[in-house]
Amino acid sequence: MKWILFFGALIGLSICGREKFFGDQVFRINVRNGDESSKLSQLVNSDNLKLNFWKSPSTFSRPVDVLVPSVSLQSVRSFLKSQGLEYSVTIEDLQIYREMDSIARDFPALVSRVKIGHSFENRPMYVLKFSTAEGRRRPAIWLNAGIHSREWISQATAIWTARKIVSDYGKDPALTSILEKMDIFLLPVANPDGYVYTQTQNRLWRKTRSLNPGSACVGADPNRNWNASFAGEGASDNPCSEIYHGPHANSEVEVKSVVDFIQGHRNFKCFIDLHSYSQLLMYPYGYTIKKAPDADELDEVARRAANALASLSGTTYQVGPTCTTVYPASGSSVDWAYDNGIKYAFTFELRDTGHYGFLLPANQIIPTAEETWLGLKTIMEHVRDNLY
Amino acid sequence: MPPAVSTPPAPRPGVPRPSALLLALALALCLAVPGLQAAGPGPGPGPGSPGVPGAPPPGLLRQAARAALHFLNFRAGSPSGLRVLAAVLRGRAAVDARRTCRVDLEFTAERYDPEVADGRLGRCSARVVFRHQKPRPAVNVTCTRFMETSRSRREDFLLYKRAKRLRAPLGATSIPNSHGWIDPSLRPIWDLAFLGSSYVLWERTTQTLHYYMAQLSSVNQWKTNEDAIDFDYMVLLHEFSTQEIIPCRIHLVWYPGKPLKVKYHCQELHTAQEGSGTEEGSAVAPTQPNNF
Q1: Which of A252, A349, A371, A381 does the annotation list as catalytic?
Q2: In terms of Cα–Cα distance, which of A123, A277, A274 is closest to A209?
Q3: Among residues of chain A, what percentage have pLDDT more than 90?
Q4: pLDDT higher at B57 or B61
Q5: Disordered: where is this region (chain B) (predicted)?
Q6: DSSP letters along A189-253, please?
Q7: Among residues B161, B211, B213, B152, which one has the least CA distance to residue B188?
Q8: pTM for the full model?
Q9: What is the Cα–Cα distance from B175 to B181, expressed in whole angstroms?
Q10: Most CB contacts within 10 A, which of A332, B32, B169, B226?
């Protein structure tokens, strides 16, 4: 989302001038000729609008990105319209892909961007692979985000985490030792079509955008589509439902892409799925009330992770198995992972507990990502020390 | 006396209803329990984890706490005094032969508005009675004040005065916007919208369903020329556990210190709740609501 540029810059620079970025937008202004460039200079020179040019308007062969504070939005829009300047408000999924690309290019020894498949509407599914081992297929951790498109804090936390990993590798002993033994795969946008839809049409869209034959309703719940008690309790067979499980397991190409990759790899030890909201840290099962064989160990790890998370800002998480902590849910990613031999399978429901819900303010992104990182690290350290 | 778990009805295709597992879970959550379970705030004991055997899981207690607070918020009629759940302290539950579930609990509450939240908690005790899978739980709740009455009256009047001066943006709106931004000048609208929604949120809550106000999606009317604020609007409610977004139209009339008047109508979508009392979800709040 537009936040990406904001905190991307914040991480890059240790000092930032303005603390608050919520409500601001990034305008991409298309400058086509000298006449337009001089009009843009008028904008540049207007002190009172407090604009911030991400890309300098000095070379006008490319579009110019401008961070427009919320207070100036109306004025800037009117100005651009009156001057006939073409602009668009930048679309976040491209932002995330560009950011991923930039991370991979900046840290080629550590990171590569891997295409694992495509979405229903043919958008690429990109994963960042963090690995210090050339060629060898080490035990691996999968970080899944954005499977439910309206849970924007999930994608945002994922991309912040990617930056965190590259900047802390070699400096943070815990992270460094994790990466000496294991690879980390990060999928920031597991549902790209849904994500674009939340930006352009319906901010509260949850599912994929696949078409359902015979129904006017679109999409299936990608977190009810995995082959773990598929179509069991806690899912719906109605295509119009938000928890529609789809016509069959892995019917959603977004899900199938991940399944195929993980199964092809054959050495995943940990699978973590990031959602919002409710502040919960859960482990299998969702599809049954029966206790998972490793529930005691997973519970202990989850409690330590929740405590580590809370140590930063006091954010409290409830811990427990999915079915009884939140509600029964069949066909979920984490249950599938667990039943396929990936013991350390966890679901995070990130901030908040309902005040803003899905519409978490931008000023909570970094605090959320920072505290979540402590929880993630606790889990990853445990995996590192308990490889099987 | 724990009830027998009866066979749930066979699923009808295309009509989602509380699933068999959910029903079994709801009953399991409602075991008769002698005595109280003490549970500390923060990451609490998960169900099925080491703890007092047979104690009601935190899920049911939180459900009851939410219902109690929505009801309290509605009855108090004070947008500055809105409260949300902080932590469940302790509770017990009992279920009778008609599968009516009675929950007695204690919990802490904090101020709704996080920007002015000063960490002060009110302490509440409540009895909440859920009729089997039916909405409109019966609530009896008392909370200690985290703010003196005179101060909350003052804040309500300040909000009232700001509201009177406010020219609300009429028509479709998004408050908060996609990025969670609420313009500070529009905050009174948001607080009043939540106050009105409290009635709806309370009425619709069952043992297994609860709601949050996701977004204010339209301001149909904002009349401030007379004494009371007359506010007609649409909200989007987020329903757990179905994950549905439910549009509701709410019409409230508010004057500081007076009981809140609320009417509402929620769109019932493709997922009609089987066994619910009012299919349409319309209701007019009585001016002297029963507190039973």
Answers
A1: A349
A2: A123
A3: 74
A4: B61
A5: 273-292
A6: -S-HHHHHHHHHT-TT--S---B-TT-S-B---TTS-SSSSTT-TT-BS-TTSTTB--SSTT-SH
A7: B161
A8: 0.80
A9: 7
A10: A332
- The structure tokens listed for B110 are 């904090």
Interface of A with B in 184-243 (CB under 8 A): 198-199, 203-204, 206, 217, 221, 232-234, 236-238, 240-243
Residues in B closer than 8 angstroms to A310, CB to CB, are: 42-43
Q: Does residue B43 carry a pLDDT above 50? A: no
Q: Which helix (H) or strand (E) holds B127?
A: strand B122-130
Q: Using CA atoms, how far apart are residues A236 and A332, in angstroms rounded to an integer?
A: 13
As separate numbers, helices (DSSP H) first and strands (DSSP E) second, chain B gives 4, 11
Sign of CA dihedral B266, B8, B134, A277: negative
C-alpha neighbours within 13 Å on the C-beta side of residue B256: 20
Question: Could you tell me which chain B residue has the CA closest to the CA of A199?
Answer: B178
State how far the alpha carbon of A325 is from the alpha carbons of A30, A322, B290, in Å: 50, 5, 32
- Angstrom distance (rounded) from CA B109 to CA B124: 7
3-state secondary structure of A160: helix
ipTM value > 0.85: no
Tokens of A365: 């992104």
